[in-house]
Amino acid sequence: MKLDQSQFDNNGEMAPPVSKPVHFFERMTARISGQTAAATSSPPPPNIKTKEALLLLQNYEETRQGWFWSTDKDGNLTYLTEAAAQTVGKTANDLVGTPFTQLFVGDEQARDNQRTLPFLLTKQTKFMELQLQAATTDEDICWWAVSGSPQFDKARNFTGFRGSGTNVTAQRRSVEDTARMAMFDSLTGLANRASMSKKLDTTLAAFQQQKRTCSIMLLDLDRFKIVNDTLGHPAGDKLLKQVAKRLIRAVGDAGEVSRLGGDEFQILLQDWEDRGDLGELANTIISVLSQPYSIEGSRCIIGASVGIAISPFDGLTSEDLVRSADLALYAAKGAGRGRFQFFARDLQQAAEDRRILEEDLRDALSKDELTLSYQPIVNVKNNTVTGFEALMRWNHPERGPISPALFIPIAEDTNLIGPMGEWALQKACKDAAKWPGNIRVAVNVSPIQFADDQLPHLVKQALKTSGLPPARLELEITESVFLGESAETEEMFTALKEIGVRLALDDFGTGYSSLSYLQTAPFDKIKIDQSFVRGANEPGSRNGAIIAAIVALAEALDMETTAEGIEALDELDWIRDLQVSHVQGYVYSMPVKNEQLCEKFESGDWVIMPEGPSKQRSERFSMFRKVGIIHDNSTYKTMVRNLSKTGALIEGIVDVPVGTRFVVDFGDGQIALSTVRRSMEQQQGIEFDQQLVDDGNGGLCTRNRVSPYLIAAAGMNIPNVPANFYPKEVAPQINGALPAFYTTDSWKAG
Ligand code: C2E
Ligand code: MG
Ligand code: MG
Questions:
Q1: Does residue 392 line the site of ligand 1, with CB under 6 A?
Q2: For a pocket test of ligand 1, which of 337, 391, 530, 584 has the largest count of ligand atoms closer than 8 A to its C-beta?
């Protein structure tokens, strides 16, 4: 349809200026209106200027930047620009005489504006830039900004509408994109920190009203920095994308995953509070993320640590809950990574301690507080020592000996591992050079040292200064950062092998335990981790079969095998049966100081006879922890002597009949129902109704806790969960009622 004179109504007026971005259109319509405003009774004959204006409008229509429309008084189209008709898959001729509102998507999809339009039309109200979605036939979405003015004849009778429209799809999309970008992480497509924090705020506020629980997991990738530094940032980005995918798959519908930034992720789990289930999910996540990744042809392995906090127990507001989860994460990382940790109140102190340790570790080297101990590695066939592993020791001036499992990760985080590792290398070579015969020394090399291209130089330097033959130095490398097929890793292996040192794969069985490294990397030895050896005792464990496979493969590739952490004689027998060639463990010797070693070296070859308990005991946690025992209406203070998932040995109450029901109050809302199964004067063996679960930190905890809501219902208020929120003694001591049992204190006194 072309614009012609008939499109002007009686008084010859065109619609007033409409869509703002259409400056040209504004000017043109203004011109026509200005020209015709003076018109009186009959339509003016189109003069040259009007013709010119019409042509310009027509050209403008053809540019498809904007379109015009007009209706009769019933709202049926009397004019429509061809381009607009095409957008809805029709021609203008088809549409004339049909309702104007049909140009836009129907009622069922209608948004607010679509519903407003018919109202405006019937009310004969002028409207400007109303954003409406075109009723397109294909899947392409088109948005128009539509303006319109009611028209009246001289008698002020309404004659219809006239107006214009412009396509605003692109603007709208960019607004939507900006909104999406503000809510989502552009790299992984996960919700970002801002939107997750908002969501957590609203969830917690609602859940507090509804007395529901909600957990969050904070997750941090272990050793991500090494991948980023070694393979580059684009590779790091690719890794993060894969991590996001695996996370979504692992969590499924159970919760919502977001990326907080860097290598930090958060998972929101509504109505989750069971610590058994949470621990299981955390373990699944950790193991899924610890499987190898293939990035740009390189294989790499990272790990993950998880901190868990549960509302309302560990915080009512999002700020508190996140702070709790953060502390738990910090503790999980501090405890050796690759693990989860529930928030507990004493973590605050632990975090403080760790920060002080970090400070102190900076000076440990210069203050001579570091030493090396040596633990024999013994050939099991003839009990002959073939070498020693150098293990770093830190004797803290105030806190005494600190475990390397605690301070090595701190050293790795604070870049102290470089100088500390170099010191260990030099010292171990120097000590070993004085040992007789061919006895070897094994030195642990952190992945961070391994990624440093200065390592071969440092090794050469240490050998040269000490005079130790290269074949007597063994470097222990963990599989955890095996950047297997990356060129740098291969170069490093080649450089080290050229020096002539031996290489051992340490802690095999704790990570992904891929046998494929063994074929590709030039290892001389595999060290099977103690957790793998110990786990082999558990029913249904396939570890024994796997160890047999490792041994067979190692023999075929001419490698030695060492089983670590053998403590008992039964384990030693079992390891011998599996044909493992070497053993390192307390069954032969604890790590000892170099001076003690040298004293024993006088006889040349060194033979140690294994000694130790005949059986490895099943896992029980020996401890001295105070707990409350609630019985009838009395609370007793007792000590837990040892604790397992199924029961505990408690001490402090006297002469309790077998079968007595006890409620154990572990504090922090952890309550366990139990039955006395054995009774020995002041000690009782109790069995829990419901098994305890792993607390992620080598300890145990109850699955559920008494909800603060419940306690609030009993008359206490919970503005927030304060530090000493949970009363230690849940059952009230009823006035006048006598406790059923004596305690050791009253017993002794009596
Ligand atoms: P690792 O290299 O796997 O060392 C073996 C660990 O097992 C040592 O723990 C050793 O004392 C312990 N062990 C040996 N036999 C037994 C046993 O029969 N039972 C038990 N329960 N444990 C046994 P340690 O000395 O606490 O060292 C822990 C880890 O710290 C080492 O594990 C190693 O990864 C790291 N580490 C120690 N020294 C250094 C070092 O100089 N540099 C680096 N980068 N890491 C080190
Ligand atoms: Mg080692
Ligand atoms: Mg090891």
A1: yes
A2: 391
- DSSP class of residue 64 equals T
* Ligand 1 contact, 567 CB (< 6 A): yes
Burial letters 709-723, b for 16+ CB under 10 A, else e: eebeeeeeebeebee
Going by pLDDT thresholds of 50, 70 and 90, the confidence category of residue 160 is very high
Which ligand approaches the C-alpha of residue 562 most closely?
3
Beta bridge partners of 679: 684
Instruction: Write the pLDDT tens digit of every residue in 112-127.
Output: 666 788 888 999 999 9
Protein residue with least CA distance to atom 29, ligand 1: 405
Range among 72-76, 117-121, 679-683, 696-700 with highest mean pLDDT value: 72-76
507 CB within 6 A, ligand 1: yes
C-alpha to C-alpha distance for 382 and 583, rounded to whole angstroms: 11
Q: If we measure between CA atoms, which residue out of 749, 703, 607, 661 comes closest to residue 276?
A: 703
* 324-366 confidence digits (pLDDT tens): 999 999 888 877 778 999 998 888 887 888 888 889 999 999 9
What percent of the chain has a predicted confidence (pLDDT) above 70? 83
Index of the ligand 1 atom closest to the CA of residue 392: 38
DSSP annotation string for 684-721? EEEEESS--EE-SSSSEE-S----HHHHHHTT---SS-
Please give the Cα distance from 744 to 638 (Å, whole number). 9
Whole-angstrom distance, CA of residue 109 vs CA of residue 112:
10
For the CA of 411, the nearest atom of ligand 1:
44
The model's pLDDT over 204-230, given as tens digits with 9 standing for 90+, comes to 999 988 889 999 999 999 888 878 877
Ligand showing the shortest atom-to-Cα distance for residue 442: 2
Rounded CA separation 483/651 (Å): 52
| CB distance 408 to ligand 1 below 6 Å | yes
For the CA of 566, the nearest atom of ligand 1: 18
CA of 432 to the centre of ligand 2 (A): 16
What tokens appear for 262 in the block?
Answer: 């860097």
Is the CB of residue 513 less than 8 Å from the CB of residue 479? yes
Residue 584 Cβ contacting ligand 1 at under 6 Å: yes
Residue 566 beta carbon below 6 angstroms from any ligand 1 atom: yes
pTM equals 0.60
Closest CA relative to residue 368, chosen from 347, 391, 396, 388: 396
pLDDT tens-digit map of 415-434: 899 999 999 999 999 999 99
Identify the burial level of 586 via C-beta atoms within 10 angstroms of its C-beta, where 0-12 means exposed, 13-18 middle and 19 or more buried: middle
Ligand 1 atom with minimal separation from the 391 CA? 38
Q: Is 727 in the pocket of ligand 1 (CB under 6 A)?
A: no
